[in-house]
Design goal:
single chain; about 450 residues; alpha/beta; TIM Barrel; 2 domains; 3-stranded mixed sheet; 14 helices; globular
């Protein structure tokens, strides 16, 4: 790695180069030799099914190897045995030991992947918009004001989170991928859909792209005809996993200029920073990245799910929010682990998630209490757990939709019967007859009120 000995984090005259660590290359590192044989086996076996990728910065700066396997950042980035069922783990282990052909191993891995709900919350069945009757893959429009765009050049990450609900983007199955290369279709859709105020670039991680490529996606959005698109959001883990992207990478300065240019048009640019643990803000370069982004007028908002083995600790959340506020970030969301992938390993009961949130919330000042949670991005919308209380009918969860496919239901409190074991919205039941309308019907199509389909009258587009 090209790092000056007296400038470990690459902030001086010699710049650190990004170096990915994969399933094959990890076995060549000194850290591999520090792991127990059972841990090595788990990494080998689980990574045949679920994607694994980290980098030298994460390994060197963010993981305490004296605490492995309990270190939260190790759990966050390295596959663990419990991420597969016992049956699936045994099967994949046996195939590896037998040395079966790669095609046989991949076929078995795919069979497991399809059982893990690779696209939750109707991502492929209910959220895809159309132009002239043709679906626009690589775009999602679930809520009226916000469109998600998956640029084809941004469909990987500097490192993969083990809990990632978008894991299906990275396993090589084209039919499970969301990606769009054609920016003209995005612009055409936005020009005809004046209700859209926010565009979210997501992935993968858009910040894996060079600034030159990112410009090709963003600059057309600054057209005066798109003045109704007032906010450009970029969902990224780079602020935590590769902050050099904003500081010392060769085009980091041009990236800051791009943010400046967006702000100069009167639009807001929001960096949706995926911060899962306070250690991700413990390095000088991570804090310098925050300062540089903030200097452009862009705003970093902090969000992450609360997950077992990583951040199911109220003190860790409170420290993360306090640190974020101090250096210029806005605490935004605490999510609930989605019902996909290795959910059984990472999920915690909703009641416990609420208690972690409440306890952390009480430890921060009003500036940190901008954070909302726990929130479930479920099929009908973003379900916010407001608390646990008692009604005449018994103990209940008090809930609301922050966003809903049916906008009329947003911000209206409703109740679900208390279930101490429930980990997701579909395990909850209405507490009263009045609450039934807030639970999705068997056919969620009835809730699809967002204007997802348009005809722009140009047969050459779409």
């Amino acid at each position: 790695m090209d790092i000056a000995l007296d400038d470990k984090q690459g902030i001086g005259s010699v710049t650190e180069k990004f170096r990915a660590i994969t399933r094959a290359s990890f076995a060549k590192t000194s850290e591999w030799n520090r792991l127990d044989p059972d841990l090595r086996e788990a990494i080998d076996v689980v990574s045949t099914v679920l994607p694994f990728r980290t980098n030298a910065y994460v390994m060197r700066e963010l993981i305490d190897w004296n605490r492995v396997p309990d270190d939260p950042m190790f759990q966050l980035t390295f596959p663990q045995k419990g991420m597969l069922s016992d049956e699936d783990y045994t099967r994949m282990k046996r195939l590896l030991e037998e040395g079966v052909p790669r095609e046989t191993l991949e076929q078995a891995a795919n069979e497991v992947r399809y059982t893990l709900n690779p696209h939750p919350a109707g991502q492929m069945t209910h959220n895809v918009p159309t132009i002239n009757g043709k679906e626009l893959p690589g775009m999602q429009h679930k809520y009226r004001e916000t469109v998600l765009f998956f640029p084809s050049n941004g469909q990987t990450c500097h490192a993969y989170c083990t809990f990632c609900f978008r894991w299906a983007q990275f396993v090589g199955l084209d039919e499970l991928k969301f990606a769009q290369r054609d920016n003209e279709l995005l612009v055409a859709y936005l020009k005809e859909n004046k209700s859209v105020t926010d565009l979210l670039f997501t992935g993968g991680d858009p910040m894996i792209m060079t600034t030159k490529v990112l410009r090709r996606y963003i600059e057309p959005l600054l057209d005066p005809e798109l003045e109704h698109v007032q906010t450009i959001r970029i969902g990224t883990k780079a602020v935590a996993y590769w902050p050099q992207r904003f500081v010392t990478d060769g085009d980091a300065d041009d990236l800051m200029r791009l943010f400046d240019e967006v702000r100069a048009t009167g639009r807001h640019i929001s960096i949706m920073g995926h911060y899962s643990h306070p250690v991700e803000l413990s390095t000088e370069i991570s804090r310098k990245a925050v300062r540089r982004i903030g200097s452009t007028g862009a705003q970093i908002r902090m969000q992450s799910p609360v997950v077992a083995h990583v951040n199911d600790d109220a003190d860790a959340w409170a420290e993360l929010w306090r640190t974020g506020v101090r250096i210029g970030c806005v605490p935004y969301y605490m999510f609930v682990e989605r019902d996909t992938g290795a959910r059984n390993y990472f999920a915690i009961p909703l009641a416990r998630a609420w208690e972690i949130y409440r306890t952390a919330y009480t430890q921060v000042s009003g500036l940190g209490r901008t954070v909302r949670g726990p929130s479930m991005s479920a099929m009908p919308g973003k379900v916010h757990i407001l608390g646990i209380t008692e009604l005449d009918c018994g103990k209940v969860f008090m809930l609301q939709y922050i966003q809903s496919r049916n906008p009329e239901l947003a911000r209206q409190p409703f109740f679900a019967k208390f279930d101490p074991e429930a980990v997701w919205f579909d395990q909850l039941k209405p507490a009263t007859e009045r609450d039934v309308e807030f639970f999705p019907p068997d056919e969620i199509q009835d809730w699809k009120t967002t204007p997802l389909t348009i005809d722009i009258g140009d047969p050459e587009i779409g």
